[in-house]
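Why this split exists: single-chain examples teach little about how molecules sit against one another. For that reason, every record in the complexes split bundles all components of an assembly together and asks for one structure covering all of them. Below is a record exactly as it appears in the raw files.
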Amino acid sequence: MGLTEQQLYLYLAVSAAMFTIGTIGVLIRRNAIIVFLCIELMLNAVNLSLVGFSRYWNDPAGVMLVFFVMCVAAAEAVVGLSILIAIFRNRQNVRVTEVNLFKW
Amino acid sequence: MLHDIFFFVLSVLGIASGVGMLLNRNPVYCLLMLVVNFFCIGGLFLILHAEFLAAIQIIVYAGAIMVLFLFVIMLLNLEVEAREEHHWDLRRISGFVLGLIFLMELLYTFSDIQQFSSAEEQIANFKYGKVEPIGKALMTDYLFPFEMISVILLAALIGAIVIAKKHK
Amino acid sequence: MILLLAPLIILLPFFSAAFIGLAGFISPNFRQQEKLIGGIATLAVFIPFLLLCAIFAGFEGNKLTFEILSWMKTGNLNLAFSYQLDQLSILMGLIVTGIGALIHFYSIGYMHHDPGYYKFFTYLNLFIFAMLNLVLGDNLVVTFLGWEGVGACSYFLIGYWYQDMEKAMAAQKAFIANRIGDFAFLVATFIVYNQLGTVKYSEITLSGESAFWVGLLIFIAATGKSAQIPLYVWLPDAMAGPTPVSALIHAATMVTSGIYLIARLSPGVYMQPGAESVLVFIAVIGALTALLAALIAIAQNDIKKVLAYSTVSQLGFMFIALGAGAFSTAIFHVMTHAFFKACLFLGSGSVIHAMEHSHSVKDPQDIRTMGGLLKYMPQTGWTFIISTLAIAGFPLTSGFFSKDEILGKTFAAAHYSGWYYFVWVIGVITAFMTAFYMTRLTYLTFGGNKRYPADAHVHESSPIMTVPLLILGFLAAVGGFLGLPEVIAHGHYNWVSHHWLNYAVKNQELHASVTTEWILILLSIIVGLAGMYLAYSIYKKYDLAGDEKIKAFFGKFYKVLENKFYVDEFYEAIIVKPFVLISQFGVMPFDKWVVDGAVNGSGFVTTVLANVLRRLQTGIVQTYAIIMVIGAIITLAYLIL
């Protein structure tokens, strides 16, 4: 059985809450690793809403999209972490507030 | 009824662990909180009948990727962040406020859910979340993106090695 | 067959100019190879001349066309570098390349030891290229390209000795005066395209108002390039360039391009209903120019200035012919004028060369310090005298036939409008004065007493300079037999008008009775001989003091003539001064405060804003993320509301 509108709304609300938590984390945490974790959380929140929609419409496309998002997230995590390692090797820390060369 | 109970428990737990991750100063704890969160999401996938996704959510995400993060945290030997780094300056406050405004807007948008209007009749016995239909879809309709993903993963693998390698 | 080689006519001078220019620019050694440079440049003009001769010999009366390059295709406009070889363009092409080749050859000697040798020949070849575009192009735009090209080359060559401020200013004056005409040319082209959707000569047929305006505008363009009132002032100053340039560009070819253009447009514009008043106007302006320039020429003492004013005067004659509707006669005069005027200029160059090398006089161009040169420079002297006879209209010389034909046609044109009587009278007076001042010039230069220091060794120029003189002198003497008067030849032997140009241009029907024609011929003989005799007798008797007689004759008016009717001063006061004043007190503050203010202000505002905004670029990722979130919030809010 599919979802009713109320159920879909609840899923989307949970997804939105998690996404917001991730967003706030990205905005306020200074540790690059944690920022990264928050981004993962945001990705997962979006995944949840996608699956919810997929269930609501009975359309497998959403599920497939989530599958691809996970693959890309894995690739992104690998590259991101290696960048963090490179930064750490240069600066002995991973504080995002200190990486500020990218300006004017 | 059973669905609603599971949903309630899982979502409360997931949000709570997310908030915990947001506020904890120890990176390792943060990571463990996130793992809990991922388990909850995996559970939500299950009750949404996306069994395959639930499986890879736990195996790949919570298992492999999070363990990779954990390795990195330990490799970098990150300490617990000092308390003074958590004082509330303008940026952190504005980040909080903006996040909350954003959440309100999202909820307001979703509350208008009648717009989606499910006119289509739902098909019974649709096995969309099982392994078999997903595998078939991947090998037919989604063959090209599937192959592309393998290339992306390979590129990420090589890129990560090159970036993280010690330069002589 | 020969048509396959026809593009070479256009391309050879171009490639030669490019080669000499680049090689000379890159390699200082190449610049020293004067013989090589001159040889290449001369061949690059002589070979097109031979090709044109071959085409001319095999010409069967049908227009030949060829295309070198497609230029632009937009909408229904299809412009190409396409050229046509009909009677008119072949004749003009022969004049340009033939005389051009002679003058190139002459320049090898004349420009000897000049530091800018390679530049000179680059410009000269480029000029030939542009001029061939002008006369061979089969549409107005290619002609305009050539028109601008010859203007530019003329500018380069007048200002060839650009270190001399006066010469550089003369170049600018020529350029600006030409620009005014060019503007009219452009507008005329626009009108033609607007009316007909084409710019090809063969498809141009206008009538009524558009014929009037296009005709008038093309004539204004011609007054710029061909030095007529009111734009003639640049030509006398253009004598600042090297003498071969004066001969080639400012006497034989470029200045006749206005006449060519009007003749070219005669079937489609000038002989169409609506353009009759333009023709009368052209004739009157031509006559006034001829008279004015001839008057000024009497009082000039610079050998090149006299020739320059005589060029303006002769161009006026050509415009008289155009105005009378005798287009082929005008082209005939272009041809004979090219012969004798090129010869005169090259002869004057030879004289100047000799005077310069004797290092004896301050101004090598002043005829008051010459005199008696015939003994020392026989070849130069005799060719100069022959050409003088030609321009003065001595019977059976080239100038006699063409000038007589012009006056006869003008008299016949009075059938259409009474104005032509006036024009004709002025033409006769001018012919008399032409004979007078040219004889004065020649006598003061070659005859009479030596007026330069006795120790100066004046000698004849090298053969490289005298051979072109001899050829041109010969042509000046016999060239007129190509266009015998109707009354003598009954139209059968007037080759230029009847057997050749009649197929390319459309002439007004002009016929006078046999008696009238004979009377007119006799009149021109008398007028020419009288002018020559008068000048000869005065200067034979008084030598340089003969000028005093002229002064006495003109009285106070002589001062006016000496100062060229104060036209330059008049333009200075009427146009230049007010223009400068308006710029200084009207436009400059506007430019400085409003235009510059707007420009600088926008820059200033940008700088200030940037200084503020760049604070946003902290380089810290989280700041950017906050801005992104704000953007997302605003977007969502917009979607909700």
